[in-house]
Specification:
Layout: H1 3-22, H2 33-67, E1 81-85, E2 94-98, E3 104-109, H3 120-125, E4 127-128, E5 134-135, H4 138-145, E6 150-158, E7 163-173, E8 182-189, H5 217-221, E9 233-234, E10 244-247, E11 252-265, H6 276-294, H7 310-319
Antiparallel strand pairs: 1-2, 3-5, 3-11, 4-5, 6-7, 6-11, 7-8, 9-10, 10-11
Helix pairs in contact: 1-2
The structure holds calcium ion (CA).
Length: 320
Amino acid sequence: MTRKKQQQQQQKKLKLWLSHLNKPHKRAHHQKPQQQLTDLRTDNELAETLVAELENVEAQYEAIVNKLPQDCSELSTHVDGLHLIAPAGQHHPLMTHCNANGWTTVQRRFDGSADFNRSWADYAQGFGTPSGEYWIGNEQLHHLTLNNCTQLRIQMQDIYDNNWVAEYKHFYISSRDDGYRLHIGDYSGNASDALNYQQGMQFSAIDDDRDISQTHCAANYEGGWWFSHCQHANLNGRYNLGLTWFDAGRNEWIAVRSSQMLVKRLPSDVCAPSSSNEAAAAAAAAAAAAIAATTTTTATPVVPSTRPTTVVQFVAAAQA
Ligand SMILES: [Ca+2]
């Protein structure tokens, strides 16, 4: 018998058992006790068989999920497009976009079609569609970066069609209990290390202010992010106004039109030892504490561009 036929027969049996068990058992009042006992025994046997079958289905499901790549770098052939992955420690498949170089897309903005002004729970779970505008979810980010061997690449295009890149050799998002805290390190690129300003911050969203500003940054910027006092970088803010990155090189805000955040596992021979997440976390916490101790008001540490763009006005308004 073919595997497909076997599966069809199994499904048929399951359906039959389920329909029997879920049917209300009409037993006549005059039914003899002996008959009632026999019925109960039959029900019990059916239930036991059903549980065994469901366990079998669960085991098959687990086996399929375990065979999925943990991220796009594990795909046998790197083809740009949508792929199913199962991040380490998560026992369910996840559809995401992979590029031809094995990078996993975790965020994408390009037309403002998806609403990014969402709750902390929405950001934890993820939203949008991997083929369009998208946030993969903080829980997924935590699991994708758990291996302590993940790099982050941020690609942006500004409203003047310039391309900007910020890459971090180390990227780790802590657990839900720790507020999905941001840990980054070893920057390279042409966009400036703006994200470092938010190093060690917990994730904030419209309904959950976890920044260290006296204002509510996520509410001001209409998007969830690792805000501090509030930001030097924010790719989840209000589209066309709130997408920004501070380019320290030019002392100017980049007015971001489209952005993409991607992660990729580093080759194992260049991976940091397993304890470095904790070391990075401790360093980040110390840095955050230092910021909190030295700054008591909402800071706009660098005067934005003299060119009055809508982005700058929006940023200035929100920082105030
Ligand atoms: Ca606050």
